[in-house]
Amino acid sequence: MIPKSHPRYESLMTREKIVGGVEKGITSIHGLIAQGRGEAFDYLIGEKTGKGALHAEKVAAALLLLAKRPVISVNGNVAALVPEEIIKLSDAVNAPLEVNLFHRTEERVNRIIQHLRSLGAKKIYTKSNALIPGLDHERAKVDSEGIFSADIVLVPLEDGDRCRALVEMRKTVIAIDLNPLSRTAQDAHVTIVDNIMRAIPNISEFAEELKRSKEESLEKLVDAFNNKENLALAIDEIIAHLQTSQR
Ligand code: ATP
Ligand code: MG
């Protein structure tokens, strides 16, 4: 048991969740490395949602509400860290889920689907009957009615190659990635430089708030967003945080 008073309580609990995911067979062992890399960047941003991230979370909510066929991609880390939260977001913006794994095995895909269903997920695309062009066979598998034909895809923690392949399919890609320098962060249309533990609930909250807005005002919000500028802001925020942390 980790005591709540531990200064790194949240970070340690997150690790427990990822380890639990590996033990349950829903998270790949490679997921541990991805989490470690994420944690390092979370430290650099001060383990809080910055201004730029919050803005990107609002834009992401607007995009998901405007979408005709939005899909939320779920991998083993997402399923271990934020399963309930991702289901809540899926309901809030009417975006079905699809399990999409980098280290894909049918067994792990099915375990994650069962895990999500046991927590109340309603709509999950479960077929693997289409391929994303430009990727090798296993990495390319998607559902023809899901990610393959989506207009907007939310990919929390996506690999750089697959993010680029989705962009090349002319989809609007929203990524959540703590590393503002990763290929995923650089290639996505909207990059949220924040921990998924904070980002997903924030997007849901914005979605509830923006639900009543007119389409034109959502479009304005989306059109005014510039991902390159927002990534530069994330890096500025890291620098500012490092400068104030100097003792
Ligand atoms: P890329 O393939 O985009 O160039 P990469 O190979 O460094 O980047 P991957 O291992 O493919 O990255 O994916 C993991 C990414 O997810 C990392 O950039 C990491 O910062 C990020 N990440 C890991 N855990 C979290 C988390 N909890 N919240 C947000 N981002 C995270
Ligand atoms: Mg990668």
What does this 3D model show about the protein?
This protein is an alpha/beta fold and 247 residues long. The protein has a single domain, classed as 3-Layer(aba) Sandwich (Rossmann fold). Helices cover 56% and strands 11% of the residues. The chain contains 12 helices and 8 strands. β7, α9 (183-187) and β8 form a beta-alpha-beta unit. It is globular.
Give the structure's gist in a few sentences.
The chain has helices at residues 9-24, 30-44, 51-66, 76-81, 83-93, 106-118, 137-140, 160-168, 183-187, 196-210, 215-223, 227-245, and strands spanning 70-74, 97-99, 124-125, 130-131, 141-142, 152-156, 172-176, 190-192.
List the helices and strands and how they pair.
Elements: H1 9-24, H2 30-44, H3 51-66, E1 70-74, H4 76-81, H5 83-93, E2 97-99, H6 106-118, E3 124-125, E4 130-131, H7 137-140, E5 141-142, E6 152-156, H8 160-168, E7 172-176, H9 183-187, E8 190-192, H10 196-210, H11 215-223, H12 227-245
Parallel strand pairs: 1-2, 1-6, 2-3, 6-7, 7-8
Antiparallel strand pairs: 4-5
Broad structural category: alpha/beta
Q: And the CATH topology? A: Rossmann fold
Q: Based on the structure given, which CATH architecture is correct? A: 3-Layer(aba) Sandwich
Cα shape = globular
Low-confidence stretches: none
Q: CATH H level: which superfamily? A: Phosphopantoate/pantothenate synthetase
The average pLDDT is 96
Q: Could you give the order of strands across the largest sheet?
A: 3-2-1-6-7-8
What is the end-to-end distance? 32 Å
The major pleated sheet works out as: 6 strands, parallel
**Amount of helix:** 55-70%
Q: What is bound: which ligands?
A: adenosine-5'-triphosphate, magnesium ion
Query: What is the CATH C level class, in words?
Result: Alpha Beta
